Amino acid sequence: MENYDVIIIGGGAAGMMASIFAARNGNKTLIIDHNEKLGKKLFITGKGRCNLTNNSSIETHLNNIVTNSKFMYSALNAFSPEDTINFFETNGLKLKTERGNRVFPASDKSSDVIKTLKNCMARYGVEVSLNTEILEVYKDNGSNCLFHILCNGNKEYTCNSLIVATGGISYPGTGATDLGYKLARQFGHNVIEPRPALCPIVVKDDISDLNGLSLKNVTLTINCGSKSFSEFGEMMFTYNSLTGPIALTLSSLINKFDLKNSVAEIDFKPALIHEKLEQKFLREFIDFAKKDIKTYLNTLLPTRLVPYFMAKINLGNKKVADLTKVERTKIINSLKKFDLKIKSLDNVIVGIVSSGGVDTKEINSKTCESKLVKNLYFIGEVLDVDALTGGFNLQIAWSTAYLAGNSLKGKL
Ligand SMILES: Cc1cc2nc3c(=O)[nH]c(=O)nc-3n(C[C@H](O)[C@H](O)[C@H](O)COP(=O)(O)OP(=O)(O)OC[C@H]3O[C@@H](n4cnc5c(N)ncnc54)[C@H](O)[C@@H]3O)c2cc1C
Description:
single chain; about 400 residues; 2 domains; seven-stranded mixed sheet; six-stranded antiparallel beta barrel
């Protein structure tokens, strides 16, 4: 049996960062992970480039946190996006800021982010136990109040403080499991049922012909009951779902709503209000009078979309000159509000993050310590906090990791 001041379960973004601050404070620190290497999810972030934070104000970060942004106020003030940038740069990682203030390593390699964290961990003497399955965790409430962690191979570790950094449940191939939720429940915590977030939106309509088609500068609106959410930008069709940046964002905004009877509407021409589009039609119809609708629509929509659009408006392929006012209005309405019935969000495991997790009401927002069990901490995505894309989710991991790691004052 080996004793540590601090044990961290989970060697992802949050776990590695917390270990550095805990060990820097003089704590004998161990990370346990069942994977064969650290940071497997971190490795695939930002399409392998790792968008490690967003170079913007704390307010912008709070505005991009979809669930429990208030909880993150102290964490982001204690360890801000600027602190993240300074941390990586002073530890030798060159960074660059791209469109939308997204920060990446200058090398475009997420592996360099992992390398930087690993170098820091080594400098402060963090120990790591990989390929380690956790069989049982309990707290002996005798005089020592130690946490016991029983692992495969008859290994047993004890620690004074336990940090749970097991992340969310999406992308199981990266080692994601629900162990963190199970431990939280075991210690009396409420866990908000995980919901898909930053994931494709599955539709009932047969859109298989549009698979792979991407649209730029469109507005996607989702109406769920009395609420509606809109995003402008780029989206893509899969064989059965809407994806791409604006669809992913909307999935996070609508995941707390009942999606039965909800509808997605695409505005293919958001820059033109209905009347302007009508004027454009009337102007252009003179030139296209002898052409068929399909030829005209090809000037307005991606060619691959036109047959699907025409089947939906169901006007046949008559000559433009033969269109009645009602038919013209029907085309304009469909260009402005092309509706698709929503079936559901995609499975929680395909989301970029999972929404839900350990109820933040029971966590001290200044330290990430459990309010129910002394010396037990929850950090990173295992918490019921999630954000939009842009580096905001990793900033949640870094900031909460700092709170927990730094609050553990060791022998220094
Ligand atoms: C494809 C993809 C791209 C992304 N891109 C970005 C991006 O560019 N920018 C951004 O801000 N966010 C991005 N994210 C989100 C970001 O990766 C996560 O929010 C972040 O990694 C959460 O950090 P974490 O430490 O809480 O969890 P994780 O990084 O998931 O780490 C959890 C660790 O716990 C370990 N673990 C889990 N269960 C057990 C168990 N039973 N026993 C032992 N160990 C266990 C896992 O092996 C893992 O090492 C992306 C996510 C995905 C899936």
